[in-house]
Amino acid sequence: MAQRVVNVYRGGTVESVHYGHAVVVKSDGKILYKIGDPETVTYLRSSAKPFQTIPLIESGAAYHFKFSPEEIAIISGSHNGEPQHTQVITQILEKIGLGPEHLQCGTHIPHYYTATNTTPKPGEEFLPVQHNCSGKHAGMLAMCVFKNLPVENYLDPDHPVQKLITEAIAYVCDYPLEKIKIGVDGCSAPVHGLPIYNMALGLARFVTPPSVPRDKAKVYSTICQAMLDHPDMVAGAKRYDTDIMRTCKEKLIAKGGAEGLHCVGFVERGWGMAAKISDGARRAIFPFSLEMLKQLGVVTSEELEKLQDYHHSIIYNWTYKEVGYIKAEFELEKS
Fold first, then answer.
1. Considering the domain 3-334, what is its CATH architecture?
2. DSSP per-residue codes, 238-263
3. Is the pTM of this model over 0.90?
């Protein structure tokens, strides 16, 4: 059963509440901490992106196209659509001999505007390379080109590239392939449903080389190191994933997903974490995730102060008067 984890205050009174689930798992599968039900099934959404990069490295495609760590990081991330991001996406497409017109992710207002609370110019149009998922899509297209596979239907769940991705997720998360639920993501790519326990286990195995065979460990480490070295490519300015990876002295692989999901790999501990807000509220997942990190002793008080906007979000009304705040209030259960 979901537990009450985030309260929304107006004045000194709780006006709304958010329920959720979370679990922290060791690479050997042991549950260390939890709240709610670790067997809750939901979709990985964009938290899957580091896993979706696995076949790109495993197949030799990344090596063939000489992808840099920066390029691997953006393929594994959900970027802001800033100029630095679109430049890297364009580089990837040039290397594989394709163009922006081959991206089937669609377009949206870049995350940069939401993150910085700014508004696009009237009539401003956006391009597929600015879509937060364009890195993932460019990586999928690179696999198609490398393996001489059709690009027109690269998002079909039965496409060989998508089958490789699903197999990679099943393996790293130690979850039966046939049990993975397949849906369609906001960017039209297949999305994978499984218990949050297995998501957390997948992150733990992903960041713990001794937990998997040497060939797998080398692939996972390549992706992890790229994300650690280029957190600005994983998300961008004023984004939670980038900010916690930059701020925390402890090495973290952080990747959020839509509908209130956040996953973290604790590189130095060999742990994985998955946190899910039941109603999918974006406003609740950051306080929930960061309070988890606080209770786990991952963030110091000094680091928490720098991340305070995520931990204790202030609510303003239309005249910019402070009228309330959002706060995570729960206690992790130690197993």
1. 3-Layer(aba) Sandwich (3.40)
2. T-HHHHHHHH-SS-EEEEEETTTEEE
3. yes
